[in-house]
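> call design_seq(struct)
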């Protein structure tokens, strides 16, 4: 079916944006974008690229010719951390008035087929935040070494103990936010840039009284590319959570 450019642009409109931060993801980026666009619901995608030397941004720019009204890219000049990439994307999404903003990794550890489940949990079931949870129904992690499974699982237990948040997967990075949540949280005041960023966002949403629901998903470790997890990121999470709990929210 042929649509003139104006009708095509209207047809491809969406109330939901998927933010994908990238640094050296040339092996995965085209496939994850195509998988997102193959869903029954129309999603838009914003790639926030931290100056990847492997040409990730160029691949996205080439794909924009095929998806001119669905695919967007923001290129940053340096590698500034996952948290700041998402903050950049959140601010962009809020300025464009998307109603639902979803964060998702580029490496297929988050299954694009679950996007609609997170979206519907907010759109149809009344959640303000929907978390793609690895631990709300047992331990749903595939291809991780046992040491990393235990680290992640007990990190979430530790965060729950310290913060008292009623969330099983406090470090999850597959999350759908309603726009009003991001408008309420002072995004420019978010402190953490690494692993602890995910905790801080959930903590602030919870402290503000937003309705948070967990959606059980299966997390699969990346097959292509390299993990960005480091000891420094883990240290930030361990000690940052205590600081965050003591300080609470600004008055």
């Amino acid at each position: 079916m042929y649509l003139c450019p104006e009708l095509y642009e209207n047809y491809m409109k969406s109330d939901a944006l998927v933010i994908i931060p990238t640094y050296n993801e040339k092996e995965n980026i085209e496939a994850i974008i195509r998988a997102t666009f193959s869903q029954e619901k129309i999603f838009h995608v914003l790639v926030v690229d931290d100056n990847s030397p492997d040409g990730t941004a160029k691949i996205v720019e080439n794909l924009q010719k095929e998806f001119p009204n669905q695919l967007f890219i923001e290129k940053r000049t340096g590698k500034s951390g996952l948290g700041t990439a998402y903050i950049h994307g959140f601010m962009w999404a809020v300025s464009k008035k998307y109603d639902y903003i979803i964060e998702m990794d580029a490496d297929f550890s988050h299954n694009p087929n679950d996007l609609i489940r997170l979206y519907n949990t907010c759109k149809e079931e009344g959640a303000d935040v929907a978390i793609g949870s690895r631990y709300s129904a047992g331990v749903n992690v595939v291809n991780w070494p046992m040491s990393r499974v235990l680290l992640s699982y007990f990190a979430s237990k530790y965060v729950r103990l310290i913060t008292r948040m009623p969330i099983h997967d406090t470090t999850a990075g597959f999350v759908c936010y309603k726009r009003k949540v991001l408008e309420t949280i002072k995004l420019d005041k978010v402190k953490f840039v690494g692993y602890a960023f995910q905790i801080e966002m959930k903590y602030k949403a919870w402290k503000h009284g937003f309705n948070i629901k967990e959606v059980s998903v299966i997390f699969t470790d990346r097959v292509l590319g390299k993990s960005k997890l480091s000891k420094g990121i883990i240290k930030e999470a361990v000690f940052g959570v205590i600081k965050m709990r003591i300080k609470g929210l600004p008055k």
